Amino acid sequence: MINNDVLRRVRYALELNDQTMIEIFALNDVIIERDELLHLLKKDNLEGYIELDNERMDAFLKGLITFKRGVLETPHGQAKPAELPLTNNSILKKLRIALDFKEDDMLSTLKLADFQISKGELSAFFRQKGHKNYRECGDQIIRNFLQGLTIRFREQD
């Protein structure tokens, strides 16, 4: 899925304003101005659209984890490198961590978007590449998960 679409949908689902988005990027040492953020949030067919690269998308997701869960204390010199190339599997995993979702939370969020998968299918997305049960996460899964997040967080009234 296109990084800009994920960024836009996460922003909408979690009701993050411009300043909060800038702060989330900054939590992972990425300085971004409001004008640039607005260009990243544009749809790809609009003038001024800027493509969000994998490094900055990864930085945003790691910043979101820190924003939602707090700073993870790691021993000096053991900072985790960026997981590149960024895949749908790693995006889904980082969203799961940021939101502190368990398996049932993930499944119920997908169900809100009228999309059902089994626990086994879901766990296959979080396995290491090369594991016999590993499965690539398709755009449809990410799209439905983000739609379910929107329903879960925005339609609680």
Helices and strands in order:
Blueprint: H1 3-13, H2 18-26, H3 34-40, H4 54-69, H5 88-98, H6 103-112, H7 119-125, H8 139-154
Can you give a write-up of this model?
- The chain is mainly α.
- The chain has two domains: 3-69; 88-154.
- 55% of the residues lie in helices and 0% in strands.
- The chain has eight helices and no strands.
- Helix 2 (18-26) packs across helix 4 (54-69) and helix 4 packs parallel to helix 5.
- The longest helix is centred in the middle third of the chain and has 16 residues, at 54-69.
- The radius of gyration is 16 Å and the shape is globular.
- It starts with a helix and ends with a helix.
A few lines on this structure:
The chain has 157 residues and is mostly helical. The chain has 8 helices and no strands. The longest helix has 16 residues, at 54-69.
